[in-house]
Amino acid sequence: MLIDSHAHLDSERYADDRAAMLARAWEAGIGAVLAIGIGEHAGGMHRALDICRQFNGLKESGAGLPRLYASAGVYPHNSPEIDATVLAQLDSLLAEPEVIACGEIGLDYYHEGAPHAVQRQGLVSQLEIAADRRRPILIHCRPKDGETDAWDDLFEILETHWRSAGLGGVMHCFGGSYDQACRSLDLGFLISFAGNLTYPKAQPLRDVAARLPLDALLVETDAPWLAPAPHRGQRNEPAWVARTAQTLAEIKGLESQEIATATTKNFRRLFQLTPDVGN
To answer: Do 194 and 173 meet the contact criterion of CB atoms below 8 Å apart?
Structure first.
């Protein structure tokens, strides 16, 4: 069994075939999916939980579907939308048992979007709520090309506002250096690799993956984006996390089943889930 630790199941790109897409994931051996609740705007962060409840209800009725979990958070580009109402909504969602993480949250200095200071304040505000609700966080960090600006600011914030919580989290769709990975591990984070691990020009990222311990790793799709080779350019979906896991296995010199077992164990440990997750 594999777990897709990061998929945007609420994307409109699944509007016509969401049930069939999840059935394909189950048939491909995907036992669970973490549905990311950021929405197109902050006010839509509840949609992942709605989908989670809808399809878990079908699963409990006997449908062949993965177990779904949800997150909730405000994406860096939407940081200007954060106000008391949005923070209250986030707090309410993180209180729900199916919402096991706060995210994806973080810093994005690559795109022209929210001012950096606004992103940083938005991140700190969400860390406070996640700490109070005892939820691990899902971090998005993307610096400008050739820069470490976002990583530098991120680590400063996490050291100041998150380490003491002792909750850790996930460095989602990791694209940083080995040193940045090590700093993340020191803060209690797992490192999650997405479909870009399979791309021909991603050898530096594969080199990082090769050096990391097995108990620090997760796999994800970031669906509907970042489809792995040979599906690159197509709409991604959770079934294809198996291709990323296969590449990770090749990097580590392991069998695919060993990666599945290890990453599932890591996911359960971080989110304190029972061993029957995915059944």
So the answer is: yes
CA 242 to chain centre: 16
Report the distance separating Cα 168 and Cα 178, nearest Å.
Answer: 18
**The two structure tokens encoding residue 59:** 């699963």
- Residue 24's closest CA among 57, 60, 56, 66? 66
| Rounded-to-5 percentages of helix, strand, coil across the chain | 50, 15, 35
Distance of CA 177 to the CA centre of its chain: 18
End-to-end CA gap in the chain: 9
If one counts every other C-beta atom within 10 angstroms of the C-beta of residue 44, the result is 14
Element holding 105 (H helix, E strand): strand 99-108
Q: Is the pLDDT of residue 52 over 80?
A: yes
CB of 172 closer than 8 Å to CB of 193: no
Token pair for residue 72?
A: 């909730």
H helices present in 61-102, as ranges: 84-94
Which tens digit of pLDDT belongs to each residue from 121-138?
999 999 999 999 999 999
Rounded to two decimals, the pTM is 0.97
Cis geometry, peptide bond prior to residue 224 (ω within 30 degrees of 0)? yes
- Domains of the chain, start order: 2-271 (3.20.20.140)
